Amino acid sequence: MQKITTYNPDQVRSPFAFFILNKGMNSGKPLEQPCPNCFTFNAKSQEEKDHNFWLCFGLWQSKTFHPYLSGSVIPFIHLRDLNQVINHASEKAQSSMANFQKTVEALKILDQHEKNYHRNLLLISEAKKALFANYRTCPSFYR
Known about the structure:
The chain is built from four helices and six strands. It is α+β, with helices and mostly antiparallel strands. A hairpin with a 5-residue loop joins β5 and β6 (76-77).
């Protein structure tokens, strides 16, 4: 089984598979769930999945895939280019695995902080709406 393939809902995939967006300005973004415009990365183990998922996440965050985007209306990345970028980055990560692991741990922490921040913004927005919920139902408020 080839490691990275074009996503097909009927394809057999590894239990350790993840998905990589292949269209739009977020091309290269790793995903836990598939979408119509993605590739499938079939890892052989959870360790390989984690390594490559966070490698792709870091490459996507640093916009490493942008120079490889093609297309004038909807940009996309070719499978061969994605493979080339991931393989090159993986070789660099393997050469200094301790530094890569530290970088991934920092990235995970920052990603969790970002998710918490967005969740807090949603809660603040809901609280603002709730403050005036009583007045919306009161007919005298609109007179």
